[in-house]
Structure formats: structure tokens, C-alpha cells
Amino acid sequence: MKIYLGFLLLLFSFHANSFEYINKEGKKREIPELHHILDVPLLDKMKPPKEFELGENRTLQCITCHGIEDIEDTPIDEVDKDHDNFLRGGRYRKLTDFCYNCHQKEANTRNNIHILLDEQDQIIEHKCKYCHEEVPDQNKEKTLDEIKLRLPAEILCYGCHLKTPHLNSIDHLVELKDKKLKQWKHTTKEKNIYMPLTKKGKIMCVTCHAPHQKGILKASLPAAKQVEDVALKEGILYKKHPWAEVYETDKKIRLAEFNQKTGENLTLEYKRIKAEVLLRLPAKNGELCLSCHTFDY
Ligand code: HEC
Ligand code: HEC
Ligand code: HEC
Ligand code: HEC
Ligand code: HEC
Ligand code: HEC
Description:
By secondary structure, the chain is α+β, with helices and mostly antiparallel strands. The chain has 2 domains: about 5-100, no CATH class; about 165-290, no CATH class. The protein is about 25% helix and about 10% strand. The protein has helices at about 5-15, 60-65, 95-100, 125-130, 155, 170, 180-190, 205-210, 245-260; strands at about 20, 30, 225-230, 235-240, 270-275, 275-280. The chain is globular. It binds heme C (6 copies). The site of one heme C has 20 residues, from strand 2, helix 2 and helix 3.
């Protein structure tokens, strides 16, 4: 398995808010919001030491990685992180050394989980199971309740992405209401497109982003409508713009405030989007934005 550990470490040092959800056995689970995924089976090639206790069907449970009794029933902020066995195997000088108990050291290119077709255009089933409990039928429309994701859709992306992959993302994770809600209802119906909201009506990453490579879902499904004007492994492409400097100066203050508020250290460059992937509608011509925003303000 190739993973880009550097990026992930950033994520683990991010301070944890917790997130509660009910798992499929009906049990209440609380985990830090930005945390390694649970309940997935160990891959055959992973051979951690014996003390990494696995759950039923060799799945990852709290006690697999943490040597603290009752951790599952302890409120997140009361867990003793200084305990010698907080992470199995004792104290590690570097967190990556802990990861290498299961993951291979080769690292440095991130395994793009969204690339779900192999060279023969067959789906790579074990990748589906990173997010789904079972491999879903590609031809069937499913609601968020029916689709059985391993983690609720609103936190599914945080294991690998930050809450702030781009400047406007965090401001958008709010309840959609009034005029914007009306516009959203209108557009999604008119364009027969899927832009799901959380149970509480809030915007989440998958409201704007499709999680799958194009070609996974049957083309006629609303959830299959997405932009992919470049191979997924290229990612979103930008081109330099002559106005970049003006734009950056203009945004400097806002950015400083944002960094202070979130404890981040984002920098910004004005770039035009050249090619887009994993978006439900194109953003470069404003279509995506206009599915909620209207022009009259
Ligand atoms: C695959 C391994 C793995 C599994 C499974 C796992 N954890 Fe963790 N957990 C980690 C790692 C790695 C960290 C980050 C440690 C660090 O930053 O030093 C962590 C951090 C934490 C923290 C501290 C968060 C903070 O920063 O305050 C808590 C609490 C925690 N885990 C609870 C749990 C609970 C509860 C479960 C089961 C529901 C669980 N973990 C399952 C690997 C795991
Ligand atoms: C006890 C074993 C174990 C430990 C320790 C562990 N992981 Fe994992 N990790 C897994 C398993 C199992 C999966 C799911 C593999 C799959 O289905 O592809 C996984 C998946 C992942 C993925 C997504 C897989 C992908 O395809 O890119 C990332 C990223 C990841 N782990 C990072 C980490 C990091 C960072 C650490 C250390 C802080 C860590 N893991 C420690 C077992 C572990
Ligand atoms: C990165 C996480 C992720 C991976 C990997 C993933 N999915 Fe999904 N899938 C989701 C999310 C989130 C939803 C719900 C939102 C949506 O439908 O777009 C979903 C929904 C679906 C749906 C229901 C679509 C509808 O009509 O609403 C199907 C079918 C599906 N996935 C099939 C697959 C298959 C097959 C694979 C593997 C080839 C796969 N998924 C891999 C995250 C993922
Ligand atoms: C309101 C719509 C919207 C929401 C919500 C949203 N995004 Fe985006 N995202 C976009 C658009 C548009 C782009 C491409 C242009 C850009 O970078 O601004 C993008 C780009 C990205 C990129 C690529 C960035 C790069 O520079 O390569 C990642 C990764 C990403 N989003 C992840 C997320 C995650 C994770 C969330 C949830 C925390 C999220 N997005 C929420 C609209 C959205
Ligand atoms: C197992 C880890 C993992 C999970 C979970 C995951 N992603 Fe990604 N995502 C990646 C990797 C790796 C890339 C490739 C680009 C990179 O390295 O940042 C990527 C790329 C993207 C991009 C395109 C950025 C670009 O320019 O290539 C978007 C948008 C995105 N992810 C959104 C999401 C959303 C939305 C979710 C939640 C449904 C999600 N991701 C869940 C690992 C993950
Ligand atoms: C799913 C609906 C949705 C989509 C799609 C969307 N927005 Fe928003 N946007 C919102 C909501 C909701 C707010 C918060 C408004 C509030 O606080 O009342 C917001 C706020 C904003 C703001 C802050 C100013 C304001 O109006 O409050 C900007 C700027 C913005 N969006 C730009 C964009 C851009 C650019 C795009 C396209 C890339 C986009 N939005 C796509 C729903 C959306």
C-alpha cells in the first residue's frame, strides 16, 4: 500500500473535535473527527504484531491500535494520551513508525482512492470497501440511508482530506436554507442531478463533489452526473493568471483572519481552473455555484 504519510501526519496533529454516530450494531460510537477509519478488515499483506487485537472478521477496532481498556466507552477528551500504551507497541519517536506496523514503508505517492477502475476498466472492489460496507450495485440508485457507508458521509472525507482543502469549503458546511435552498431544489430537479445534504440539511463535501471516478455509476443515475475533463490521476489543473498579484493583495487580510480563526497556515494563489474532476457540475463557468446562489445580490 502506498500512502503519503506526511500529509496524514498533518491531519493527525490537527486538534480533535469528536464525532458521534450509531454504528451498524446500533451502538453509539465516538471518535475524534479526523481519525483513522474503523471497522475495515486488515489486508492479507498487513502483519501487525500479535498485541494489535483484531475484531470479528479481522476488522480494526479501538483496541487494535490503542492499548487502553474501555477506550471505546471513555469520552474522547478524557482518554489518557500520555499512557505508555496509548498506541500499541509503546511510545514511538515518530508516528509513522506506528503506521508501519501495518502499512508498508514504500510511501510517498498517495493512493488515489477515487481511481476505482483498473487498466481493464474493471472495478477494484477492495477500494469500494474502504468507504462502503459492501460493494454496491453500480446500477441502483440509493439514498444516503440505504448506501451503508462505513462512516457518515459528512465525515467520510476527513480521514484523508482536511476540512479546508480550499478557501471556501469550511464556510460552506452550513445549513442550506431560504432562497439558496429553493434554488437548490429547483436546480437538482431540473438538471436531474444529485447534491445530497446531511440529515440536518447541511452542505457537506459530497454536496459539491462526486466521490467516484466517472464510469463507476450507471450513467443515467443522478449521482453519476459529474465533471471529469481530465484523467483523474492528473487532478484539478490550474493555469497561472496575469492578475494573480492583484488578487493576492486583495485577499491578504481575509486570509490572515482565516488562518488565525482556524489555526491554519494557508497560502493563496489566484489561478484559473483549467480542468476539473470530481465535481457534480462545472465550477469554472459558475454552473455549480448557481445551483444554490442566485445572481441578484
Ligand atoms: C488503525 C489504528 C487506530 C484505530 C483502529 C483507532 N485509533 Fe484512535 N488514534 C490512532 C492514531 C494513529 C491516533 C493519533 C495519535 C497521535 O496523534 O499521537 C489516534 C488518536 C486517538 C485519540 C486522541 C485524539 C486527540 O488528539 O485528542 C483518541 C481519543 C482515540 N484515538 C480514540 C479511538 C477510539 C475511541 C477508537 C475506536 C472507536 C480508535 N481510536 C481507533 C489510531 C487508531
Ligand atoms: C493495525 C493496522 C493499521 C495501522 C497501525 C494503521 N493502519 Fe492505516 N489502514 C489499515 C487498514 C486495514 C486500512 C484499510 C485498507 C484498505 O481497505 O485498503 C487502512 C487504510 C489507511 C488509509 C487509506 C488507504 C488507501 O488506500 O490509501 C490511509 C491513508 C491510512 N490507513 C493511513 C494510516 C496512517 C497515517 C497510520 C499511522 C498513523 C495508519 N494508517 C496506521 C490498517 C492500519
Ligand atoms: C471515497 C469513498 C467512496 C468510494 C471509494 C466508493 N464510494 Fe460509492 N459512494 C460514496 C458516497 C459518499 C456515496 C453517497 C453519495 C453519492 O451517491 O454520490 C456513494 C454512493 C454510491 C452509490 C449510490 C449512488 C446513488 O445513486 O446515489 C453506488 C451505487 C456506489 N456508491 C457504488 C460504489 C462502487 C461500485 C465503488 C467501488 C468501485 C464505490 N462506490 C466506491 C463514497 C465512496
Ligand atoms: C460549495 C461547493 C464545494 C464544497 C462544499 C466543497 N468543495 Fe472541494 N472544491 C470545490 C470546487 C469548485 C473545487 C475546484 C476549484 C477550487 O479549487 O476552488 C474544489 C476542489 C477541491 C479539491 C482539489 C483542490 C486542489 O487544489 O487540487 C479537493 C481535494 C476538495 N475540493 C475537497 C473537498 C473536501 C474534502 C470538502 C469538504 C470538507 C470540499 N471539497 C467541499 C467545491 C466544493
Ligand atoms: C483513503 C483516502 C481518501 C478518502 C477517504 C477520500 N479521498 Fe479524496 N483524494 C485522495 C487522494 C490520495 C487524492 C489524490 C490527490 C491528492 O493526493 O491529494 C484525492 C483527490 C480528491 C479530489 C481531487 C483533487 C485533485 O485535484 O486531484 C477531490 C475533489 C476529492 N479527493 C474529494 C474527496 C471527497 C469529497 C471525499 C469524501 C467522499 C474524499 N475525497 C475521500 C484520498 C482520499
Ligand atoms: C449546495 C449549495 C451551494 C453551492 C453549490 C455553492 N454555494 Fe456558496 N454558499 C452557500 C451557502 C448556504 C452559503 C452561506 C450563506 C449564509 O451564510 O447565509 C454560501 C456562501 C458563499 C459565499 C460567502 C458569501 C455569502 O453569500 O454568504 C461565497 C463567496 C460563495 N458561497 C461562493 C460560492 C462559489 C464561488 C460557489 C461555486 C464554486 C458556491 N458558492 C457554491 C451555498 C452554496
